[in-house]
């Protein structure tokens, strides 16, 4: 008859704590620096084209009424 090791809840907690610490150690040292950039855009389209839209065109392009948009 073979003897089986039985893990207790305390053993499971220790295992998961150690595993979590190892994962944080591994990924913490390999963190990729992030950056954020934005293109400057002109508002010419909004100022020249949008005011000429009919109600039907507005709803087709924006899927809401002009009243909802403003």
Listing every helix as H and every strand as E from the N terminus to the C terminus, the arrangement reads: HHHH
The coarse silhouette is elongated
Tally of contiguous helical segments: 4
Instruction: Characterize the quaternary organization of these chains.
Output: single chain
How many strands in all?
0
**Sheet with most strands:** none
Radius of gyration: 30 Å
Unreliable residue runs: none
Q: From the helix content, strand content and strand pairing, which structural class follows? A: mainly alpha
The share of residues in helices is 40-55%
Query: What's the end-to-end separation, in Å?
Result: 78 Å
- Report strand %: under 5%
Question: Average pLDDT, to the nearest integer?
Answer: 82
Write the layout of secondary structure elements.
Layout: H1 9-28, H2 44-48, H3 55-62, H4 66-69
What can you see in these coordinates?
The protein is mainly α and 70 residues long. It has a domain at 45-70. It is 53% helix and 0% strand. It contains four helices and no strands. The longest helix is centred in the N-terminal third of the chain and has 20 residues, at 9-28.
Features of this protein?
mainly alpha, 70 residues, single chain
Short note summarizing the structure:
The chain has a domain at about 45-70. Helices cover about 55% and strands about 0% of the residues. The protein is built from 4 helices and no strands.
């Amino acid at each position: 008859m073979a003897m089986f090791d039985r893990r207790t809840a305390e053993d499971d907690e220790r295992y998961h704590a150690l595993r979590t610490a190892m994962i944080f150690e591994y990924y913490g040292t390999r963190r990729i620096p992030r950056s954020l950039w934005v293109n400057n855009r002109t508002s010419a389209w909004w100022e020249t084209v949008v005011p000429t839209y009919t109600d039907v065109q507005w709803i087709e392009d924006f899927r809401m009424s002009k009243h909802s948009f403003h």
